[in-house]
Amino acid sequence: MEQILDIFRVETWQETFLVLLDMAIVFFVIYRILLLIKGTRAVQMLVGLVLVLVFFFLSQEDYLHLATTNWFIDMFIANFIVIIVIIFQSDIRRALAQVGRAPLFSGSGSFEETSVLEEVVKASVMLASRKLGALIAIEREADLSHYTEEGIKLDSFVSKDVLFTLFLPEHQNPLHDGAVIIQKGRISAAGCFLPLTINPRVEKTLGTRHRAAIGLSEDTDSAIVVVSEETGTISVAYDGELYRDLDANALRAILQKIYSARHFNARRQSLLERFRNKTAGDETEASK
Questions:
Q1: Which of 16-30, 80-94, 130-144 reaches the highest mean pLDDT?
Q2: Looking at residues 86-98, what average pLDDT do you find?
Q3: Residue 209, Cα to own-chain centre: how many angstroms?
Q4: Alpha carbons 121 and 225: distance in angstroms, whole number
Q5: Are 153 and 188 a contacting pair, CB within 8 Å?
């Protein structure tokens, strides 16, 4: 604590300027780190690490005096840097890549989500009616640029016709097997590879597309639309869950709720169940 107080003991205006500059750099770095991990699974892991540090200080002799617990956590903290690198290796790699290719002050502009989502809904219905497999990831807060690196960059306007064409298997189309990623209201890349889920609770009958959709939804806050090539059914993966057998209205309702300003914080009840409850309520009122 005394070392922190010594920072603010300045005598000249030059020292004051350097102190303020030093604080601004630290705050900016922390801000950029929080922006980087926002909406990803790294946030939950970071919260867990912070709780471990808090419990370490509480277990010291001056507070709870939990000697064994304090010793155990102290051994854990001794390798803290290595643990951070292992846990956040993908986020660190993505951060370094971003710094190398983009300005520090670049923002994530807004876009008209409603029109983009409507085009995704229309394209999904068209693909489902012809039993053409599709995988469409729509970015939210978490940056998906890392997943576009191995795909084919497009930077195209989002329309049902473009999305439908990208998943056509005819004419040796190299893009139809991978995922299409939508960023900032535009199709940024196609033919992208997504991480497969390793959750043992996922049904064994699900194919690679559905597993990839669930895997990305576990690592980021994006919503991923999946069209089954075998059954022609439409599904949405979000927050590690898969909502299946959706028609156009259900798909539209789920996507609008996910991308609404309310951020859909309540997660205990499934999105599909909420939509069906609302539909049932509307039918009840109409019958009256």
A1: 130-144
A2: 65
A3: 17
A4: 9
A5: yes
